User: Fold this.
Amino acid sequence: MAIYKLIQNTPMGPDDIQRLVTAYHGTLRALELIDRDDPITRIVARTVFEITQTGIEDAAEISKLDKAAWNCLARDEIGLNHHRAPGS
Assistant:
């Protein structure tokens, strides 16, 4: 699983690992990513890890921020975040 590969060489305590794993699984569920071998799960894991590095300790909050980041990325990809001036 992507999250375990990411943290295997990281000096983290059991509570930190549990928080990362919980946030990771929460994000995968929220994004409806069922295939744990999908390459995008590695990106989700990396994002969860990066959010954790900011000092946020609540797994639900980490997952919420990760999902929000994915929603912003998806909106950018389909052009919903780009505003055009009237008449352009």
About this structure: Residues 14-77 form one domain. Residues 3 and 45 are 5 Å apart (CA to CA).
